[in-house]
Design a protein that fits this description.
330 residues; two-stranded antiparallel ribbon; 8% strand
């Protein structure tokens, strides 16, 4: 409870911009005791003693449950407007609890109330609105990092929000969910390292076991935009592309190779984008390619941290918003 209050509270108290502002939190109780996994759900049972226990088990069928089985490029019926959401952010490689290296992680059921509300960024009413929200969320991430000293570590399509309601006093765009956030001074310490995040958007370096950095989160912003351009044909139409849907369940090492293959060569990247971006997001291809070139210098992973990447990404997105082809209605 202290960690949740501290992360959200610090972001609010230090006047971080474009991050949901904290209001209240509480721990859910069942029959007078905290609702958690170890005691309440498992009832104290050590699941590691089960004959079929497998550490880090994630079968494809589980991560794809309830998804469409449509073929490549085939859109869902208009009644199915929900996104092909990636798998859970709670990956099996998260560092263990302080109880010891042999202890299973325990989760406690908590509720956090924030002052800001909106809708996920992929539901933006236009391409320009999407880009403006993305730009604002990157600004929020930088503010969270520089002002509060917090690294988000879970940049995903459901944690980037947009507010297009003139009567809503929330931020026009903002980040939510600081559950996995860590402080700068904790980088490299127990709890700060681990393959945390929402699988489809995790940076290549993190997939390969590297320490978390703000640079990895900035790369995740790129993968969010890429995913939206592939899976959404406007604010209310989504589709499943098997080639990319597999990102939700293939191994971390294979996913890293898949992502490297997407961004390593400019011609190949543009060709893939032309084949896979929806008609609605085709006008963004040259701009997503420009982002690719600054996020992945020379088509590879970054070698050193560079805070200037914040400004370069926002600048490209700002120019994209002014592109007549992007601003035009469908």
């Amino acid at each position: 409870m202290i960690r949740i209050r501290k992360s959200w509270g610090d972001a609010t108290d230090k006047e971080v911009v474009n991050v949901a502002r904290y209001y209240h939190h509480e721990t859910v109780q069942v029959l007078g005791t905290e609702d958690d996994i170890r005691s309440n759900v498992r009832g104290g049972i050590d699941v590691r003693r089960a004959t079929n226990y497998r550490e880090c088990s994630m079968p494809p069928s589980a991560s794809r449950e309830g998804r469409s089985t449509s073929t490549t490029g085939k859109k869902r019926p208009s009644s199915q407007t929900s996104a092909p959401l990636p798998s859970s952010k709670r990956l099996c490689s998260v560092s263990p609890t302080k109880a010891g290296s042999d202890a299973l992680p325990n989760r406690v059921h908590r509720r956090v109330i924030v002052r800001d509300y909106g809708k996920p960024i992929y539901k933006a009413s236009s391409r320009a609105a999407l880009l403006a929200a993305l730009e604002g969320c990157i600004e929020g991430h930088e503010s969270l990092w520089r002002t509060a000293g917090l690294l988000h570590r879970d940049i995903s399509i459901n944690n980037l929000m947009i507010n297009e309601d003139d009567n809503n006093r929330s931020w026009p765009s903002f980040l939510i969910d600081l559950d996995l956030a860590v402080r700068k001074e904790r980088e490299g310490a127990s709890g700060a390292k681990g393959k945390t995040g929402t699988r489809a958007f995790i940076a290549i370096g993190v997939l390969l076991g590297g320490d978390n950095s703000f640079m990895h989160d900035l790369e995740s912003f790129f993968w969010v935009l890429f995913w939206i351009c592939v899976h959404y044909d406007g604010p209310d139409k989504s589709r499943v592309i098997p080639e990319f849907d597999q990102w939700n369940y293939i191994s971390m090492e294979l996913l890293a190779k898949e992502k490297k293959g997407q961004v390593s060569h400019e011609g190949d990247f543009i060709r893939s984008a032309e084949e896979n971006f929806t008609p609605y997001y085709q006008p963004l291809i040259p701009w997503v390619n420009r982002l690719r070139k600054v996020v992945f210098p020379n088509g590879g992973r970054w070698e050193g941290e560079d805070t200037g990447l914040y400004a370069r990404m926002r600048e490209i997105i700002g120019y994209a918003r002014k592109d007549p082809k992007v601003a035009a209605e469908r």
